[in-house]
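Long-time lurker, finally posting.

We've been working with Prolyl endopeptidase (Meira miltonrushii) and I want a structural starting point before designing mutants. I don't trust myself to interpret raw outputs, so I'm hoping someone here can both generate the structure tokens and explain anything notable. Sequence follows.
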Amino acid sequence: MRSSLFKALLAGVTLITFVCVESTAAQGAPFWNPKQDKYPAVKRVAKTYTYRSARAKGNVTLPDPYNWLERPITDADVKGFVADQSKMLEGYVSKCTNRKTIEQSIRDAFEYDDYTNIDFNTNPATPFYTYSLKRAGDDRYIWYIATPAEMDAAVKNNFATPPGKKFLDEKFLSANNTATIGNWQTSFDGKYFAYMVADSGSKVSTWFFRTFDKPLLSGGPSTPLGGSGTLPDVIPNVDGYFSWRLDSKSFFYTGTLPSAGGSNTDLGSSIRYHVMGTAYEKDITVVKAEPEGADGSNNYWSFTTSDDGNWLVVNGADGSLGYGRLYASKMTGQAISGNMKWISIAPNQEDIMAPLNVIDDFIYVRTSRGALDGQISKAKLDWSKAKQTSDLKTLKDKLPLTTVVPEVKKESLSLAQAFNHDKVVTLYTIDGSYAVKIFNLRTGRFIGQPAPQEHPGSLFIMVPANKGTSIKLIMATLTSPRKVYNMELVGNSIKTTLWTTQSTKGVNAQDFVTETMSATSKDGTIVPYLLISRKGTPKTGTAPVWLHVFGAYAYVESNYYDPIQLSWLNSYGGFVAYGSPRGGGDKGEGWHQAGQKHNKEKTFEDTAAIAVDLVKRKIAAPGKVIGHGGSAGAIAITAAANQVQSSFGLLLGVRPVLDYFLRKRSRGGSAQTDEFGDVDDPVDFDYVRAWSPLQNIPTKGNYPAVLMTPGEGDDSVVAAHAFKFLAEAQRDHPNNPLPMMFYLVPSGGQDNYGVSTDAVVNEGFYQQCFAQLALGLQHKK
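Top reply, 14 upvotes:
Generated this for you. Predicted structure of Prolyl endopeptidase:
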């Protein structure tokens, strides 16, 4: 043990602070010696793809020498590659002699009670709550049922003891503890609990059903998927949308096709109808799947039912941004079938058209029509003009819309959900944070803005079914893992009550400071970012900074709770930064479009500008900016590093997209073209070719350290992205002074990240250990 002495300036007073640290690595310590530490040899093949290029005015052929790594992970050659790379990684991280300390630090960040998915079922004769909870020390979520009286009592003591009784333990959803619940819905009569189970992070799931008198609290090596004690109704090959009918005897759901490990690009999206107690094979296809387009495009069906149970409203989109066709069918007076009467509301995918409810034959929608940042509008449904068809594409009517809740410029209407028949709760994104507002859906009258003082980094809104009056807001920031507010509709106003605040053991949110900073991008645009640190952390140009970036789909990823990031901040000092490059939704839809498709380069320029600004302001030490991003965020950090190699010391890509040409060949890839471009379009090809990370790894100069963490079970962003990128980077930079590797997360996928505490602790260890060794960081005890 030794002591480290540093100075911190706080309120104009110079403080001398002693911090105990474990003796680990000093900057430049010989944990990686490229003359001795050689990368495994990886074979190259003569595979090529040919694309049309507008710039070349003809065809362009791209070599793909590591294409064979796109084979299934079970392939013998791919298994050999993974084994060789994993052996190298394990040898490297074995030099972190403080592994247990790192793991315990991350585990400590889970030391709070994570209450979520709180749902009040008001329709049964005896109303009850369901919720899920992962307590400090638990690996998986456990679901509970509780009476209103039990919940009221828990509110009085800050939920010190979980109210009610355990009903379902997610660790018993499968024999190998890799399954998780991705969606759920209780039937209106309170009899059935429907839950959608995804195994190993797959995008293709299965619906299971059980009654509340059959809890799932045990299991073993022979446990079937979904757990023991389920009802015979089992619905495979589904992807999320579900709605009970009011009589609780039947439901609608969306079906899909198996993913084949991500290689099947045909989604086969359909809307189907199931009657409880009947075989899945007898389900009625209400809206059939549309054929995959010649360009690989797929139609994604989603739907909602009106709260009076009379209307089925379906939306068909072929992209990731929600621009869709919209149709409505009145279910009264006709049988559920594949040849029903429909009204066409929006026959083309020109605008966002998200249905909310149908009231007195008016349909209410969240839409971008005539409103860049979104608004709520309505249209009159004239049933006399409905047409019977089995093919909705034959319907061409486009209904005029009337504004109900008008657009607010630069405040993006990110979400809206109807409740209590004619009320709507909305979520606005304002300068990188969220604001919840409630309106009367019929008139557009503003009712209230609960918890206006809160600016959470993540926010879940739990809306009651049917005519329920209470909404739950479940929010978090990096230093405050869980707050739950109850919003009760009382007459024409909202009463907001703080139900619980859960804090991480040993962490006081008041000990941290959040600053709003900005960088100047290449074209002069001012790009905001948040900076979080312990109060008094000096800005002397010696600290490491963990910079998280996403920058796509108009999403906002800023100041959310992440145990790995909080652990890192507590263990290594320094700062956590959240970048808001163009392409995200931080400053409205215009900010998103400024970094979308042909403007995508701006996302990468903004990301590099933030990294450079952190060093310029002496917040970060040169070479100690850690670029962190998941999925599209991994594109941002690697594309930025490819262009400005010195801007980062380490790249951490989680389930990373690194070969955008492979993304188009994988499940769901065609839906990303509205955000990033279509590689099969000659103009788009030229833009994508200029930034796709794999195809633009620089061959000269030193490259940052790299640790990618692909998921073994990810059938959307397949692990081959990381495999191919690292194989090429290692070949191009065999003598790089910093290592470049990957950790294949067992059974990992996009849809189960963060579900298992043990899995997060393990992945976090590799990330923190890698940073510690590569950047010469010191872990505080």
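Before you design anything, note these points.
The mean pLDDT is 92.
The longest helix spans residues 757-775.
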